[in-house]
Structure formats: structure tokens, C-alpha cells
Design a protein that fits this description.
Layout (H helix, E strand, L loop, with lengths): L1 H21 L17 H8 L12 E3 L6 E2 L6 E9 L5 H7 L7 E5 L7 E3 L1 H9 L4 E5 L1 E2 L2 H4 L5 E4 L1 E2 L11 E2 L3 E3 L2 E3 L4 E5 L2 E5 L6
Cofactor: a divalent metal cation; Mg(2+)
Protein name: 4-hydroxy-4-methyl-2-oxoglutarate aldolase
Enzyme class: lyase
Length: 205
């Protein structure tokens, strides 16, 4: 009786070890990246395997921690980068979001101005309808409670109720740098609640 029980327990133990082995990567013993989730942690595990002692690699660059806040209804998003450089004015933001997004992410460098918003609910709604995956803004948004209900990713540094000016257009599809990373047109960006990761190409897990 005891022998049979011991054999049964041994069989269960082997099964548990086999399942654990099947659900870990062979080199690290950690759970494998989740390709369906495609979170920034998964991206870093595969494309930035070095630990914190190596902060920059050839494959990916990680934005400064807690630089952005989430405002959109979609917390996790990714896509090819299109950029805008502007300061306290948003005509190019509107012009860009009027285009077909084709799953892209609009990255707007507003110089971190905290004096007005570069995005409101009307533009965010337009972006969602036109197929943009998300918008990342080095600046402010407004109508944040309404944007939170929309199926689009929106990251920015804060909120401000005042709208921006229309005094000049700014620049479109130029390199922009903020949050300790540079976004180039055509780069791929991956964003979720953990942060933002930038790569020079579309990544696979």
C-alpha cells in the first residue's frame, strides 16, 4: 500500500517537473515570452537580455521610468512610429490623425510644455476611427475622462484644460528625443503599463 502510494507521488512529481520544464525557457528557467500579450517586459526579455547593468543595446531602448501616464482606453499598444515636433500648437497633430493610421503610433514632442494640451477628445476619437494604434505625447492632453473610454492608446505627461495655439505648424516625421530615448520615423514602439520600448524595426518574440 505504502509502495503504491510512493510510486503515485513520484509520478505526480515527474509530471509537475515536466510541466515546469515545458513552460520555461531552457537557458534561463523563466516563463517564456508571451507572443500574444507582447508586453514591454516580454520585449525586454527577448531583445534586451542583459540586466540593468547594460541599459542600452543595439536592439531596443527603454524610455525613462514613470515619464508617461496612461490616458487612453487601450493600455497596451504598438506600431510603426510617425513623429511630430511642435511647441504649444497642434495643427500637424490634427493633420496627421486625419490620415489613415494603419496601426501606427503618432509620437508628438511638444517640448514637455505644461501650459496647454496638444490632444483632446475630438482628435483622440478621430485617431481611433482612422486606425491609429496609439499616441505618445511629450506634453499635455485634455478631456482625459472621455479619452479613457476610447479604444486607443494614449500616453502623455499630464493634463491641462487649455487648448493649444495654431500659430505655426511644427515639423513632421523628424527624429524627436525625450524620456531618454530617440524616436525616428519608421521605428517601432511598444507601450503598456510598464513603460515604453523603442526599436529600430518590428520585433518578434
Amino acid at each position: 500500500m505504502r509502495l503504491a502510494k510512493a510510486r503515485q507521488l513520484a509520478g505526480v512529481s515527474r509530471a509537475v517537473r515536466a510541466m515546469a520544464t515545458a513552460n520555461t525557457t531552457p537557458t534561463t528557467g523563466l516563463p517564456p515570452p508571451n507572443a500574444e500579450r507582447f508586453g514591454t517586459a516580454d520585449v525586454c526579455d527577448v531583445h534586451h537580455p542583459e540586466n540593468v547593468d547594460v541599459m542600452t543595446t543595439r536592439s531596443v531602448h527603454v524610455a525613462a521610468a514613470n515619464y508617461f501616464k496612461d490616458f487612453g482606453g487601450r493600455r497596451r499598444f504598438c506600431g510603426a512610429v510617425s513623429t511630430i515636433l511642435c511647441f504649444e500648437n497642434n495643427p500637424l497633430v490634427r493633420a496627421a490623425l486625419e490620415e489613415s493610421g494603419r496601426g501606427r503610433v503618432l509620437v508628438v514632442d511638444g517640448g514637455a510644455s505644461a501650459r496647454c494640451a496638444l490632444l483632446g477628445d475630438n482628435l483622440a476619437e478621430m485617431a481611433a476611427a482612422n486606425g491609429w494604434a496609439g499616441i505618445i505625447i511629450n506634453g499635455m492632453v485634455r478631456d482625459s475622462e472621455d479619452i479613457a473610454k476610447m479604444d486607443i492608446g494614449v500616453k502623455a505627461i499630464g493634463t491641462h484644460p487649455l487648448k493649444s495655439s495654431k500659430r505655426d505648424k511644427g515639423e513632421r516625421d523628424v527624429p524627436v528625443s525625450f524620456a531618454n530615448v530617440t524616436f525616428n520615423p519608421g521605428d517601432f514602439v511598444y507601450a503598456d503599463g510598464d513603460g515604453v520600448v523603442v526599436a529600430s524595426r518590428e520585433l518578434e518574440l
